[in-house]
Amino acid sequence: MSLLVVGLSHRSAPVSVLERAALSGDAQVKLVQDTVAAEPATEAAVLATCNRIELYADVDKFHAGVAELSTLLAQHSGVGLDELTPYLYVHYEDRAVHHLFSVACGLDSMVVGEGQILGQIKDSLARAQELHSAGRLMNDLFQQGLRVGKRAHSETGIDRAGQSLVTFGLEQLAAGTDVQTWAKGKKALVIGAGSMSSLAAATLARAGVAEIVVANRTYDRAERLAQILTDADDTDVVARAVPMDAVPGELTRADVAVSCTGATGLVLTAEAVAAAIEGRTGAPVAEIDADVVPVALKPLPATSLGTDENCPLDLTAAQSGFSVMGEAAVAGMAAAELEQHAAWVDNGTVDRRDASRRTPETVEADAELIGALAATVARVGRIPERRRPEPVAGFVRPAPALFLLDLAMPRDIDAAVHRLAGVRLVDIESLAEASADAPMAADVDQVRRIVSDEVAAFGAAQRAAHITPTVVALRTMAADVVAGEIARLDGRLPDLDERQRGEIRQAVHRVVDKLLHAPTVRVKQLAAEPGGAGYADALRTLFDLDPETVAVVSRAVDSTTEKDRPA
């Protein structure tokens, strides 16, 4: 059996794909269960974070394993295999070990060196243990990964290179200003009460915000987090909890809001954010478009296609400054929905209030646009979302009145908020863009050396462990031979006393032990080297060992190892 990992991350896939492929807790459980039920795999674990989804498995066939794991990832993520495949990466055996150890050290994180990944790896292992999908390989791999990550943080200055995603996000919101200077005296709204939201709240409190309001679907959890913040000795922040339905009102009062929930839909729409800004300023919110000067955000006027109820789009959600046929209107639309949209266009639906707006020219233009959109769908699977406008010449974006940090995957805050004047939104996608240019500390090279050394040591230990059942089976066979010969001698020399029998028994055991000592020690050394797996087969062949006996010893060793593992 061999280690295989198939996954995608912020390094291989755009955030829009990661967002759609995000796995809920239940989906992760089902994915692990289906993986170990599949033919090529005997063990499995899922590592799912806000910027990666990885499936680890112990497989007996490489190509079959890759095909099966890729298919399972597609099925459980809901993203078609054809669309997902270009973004998947595959690591096998030592490369898979190297990848996990690099992840554990924070080398593969969006913010290099961040330490939160260690907790996520620990959670992944705990889930696999609860599901009984973690055998010897997964337990050894993930536990060693945790030790390597801790070693990297304790022996090097990787912490100087890295920081939490929360801290990095706040730095992006502050846009070059010292975070504590930027945060001092601000009122903050934290949506969610999980680990990431709790970290965000604590970071904001230490940065010097004056007030933190925590909103969560389970009010008790919000209240518990608010109490922890209030009781903390190192801050003077005032914290309180509110139910989720109080978010719109609290958003009107907040200067900065951080959202990280497990919701599958949007928590804050562009309309909700615009309403909050208008509630603060008393003025309509301007929207910044790539091709036009800022326009007031207002209900969509009649367009060339009207507002027929049979249109598959929610026209009420369309933003001013865009045609309902435009890129923004169909952002994220699947191919089947696009076909419905095209059929609606072809039917020549018009606004009953203004039929004159539907002309042959607009029909032809709409048909050309639909063709272009269909070509895009054929190439990438969905219409890409129009997120950020190009800067308009001569236009200076107004200073933000509201700062938003979205750390959720899938996103909590509508990406259309990027186009609202007076709002600064930092989300996973913009963090990925910013982190690409972030400098890396010199300590990263030292961590890489640690990872390489640990991968070599782990491989040697695994190869040595692979031959152990064969060596044990050989010694068991030798012991059985000795016992048989001693029994035969007892029958032929019944007059020997116990002292004599003991001397003979000890002498025979010493001869056998000395004969086996050098070859068994040497074969363990050879097996620990790269390519040493064949020595176990050679030993079984030379001594004609029963494969089932070796398998029984292997299962016994696994059982003992599992029992002795720390909880």
The gist of it:
Helices cover 53% and strands 11% of the residues. The chain has 567 residues and is α/β, with parallel strands linked by helices.
| Structural class assignment | alpha/beta
Strand residue content: 5-15%
The averaged pLDDT comes out at: 77
Walk across the major sheet and give the strand order: 7-6-5-8-11-12
Major β-sheet profile: 6 strands, parallel
Helix content: 40-55%
Radius of gyration: 31 Å
Shape type:
elongated
Tell me the number of helical segments per DSSP (H or I, 4 or more residues long). Answer: 21
Number of E-type strands: 12
Enumerate the spans where pLDDT stays under 50 for 5 or more consecutive residues: 290-332, 348-358, 380-392, 559-567
How far do the termini sit from each other? 25 Å
Written description of the protein model:
- The protein has 567 residues and is an alpha/beta fold.
- Helix content is 53%, strand content 11%.
- Strand 9 and strand 10 form a beta hairpin.
- The model is unreliable at 290-332, 348-358, 380-392 and 559-567 (pLDDT under 50).
Helices and strands, with pairings:
Layout (H helix, E strand, L loop, with lengths): L1 E8 L5 H7 L3 H13 L3 E9 L2 E8 L2 H16 L3 H4 L4 E4 L1 H11 L11 H15 L5 H20 L2 H4 L3 H10 L4 H5 L3 E5 L3 H13 L3 E6 L2 H13 L6 E6 L3 H7 L2 E4 L10 H12 L4 E2 L7 E2 L38 H12 L13 H21 L21 E5 L16 E4 L1 H8 L7 H50 L5 H30 L6 H9 L4 H18 L3
Parallel strand pairs: 5-6, 5-8, 6-7, 8-11, 11-12
Antiparallel strand pairs: 1-3, 1-4, 2-3, 9-10
Helix pairs in contact: 2-3, 5-7, 5-18, 6-7, 7-18, 13-14, 15-16, 18-19, 18-20, 18-21
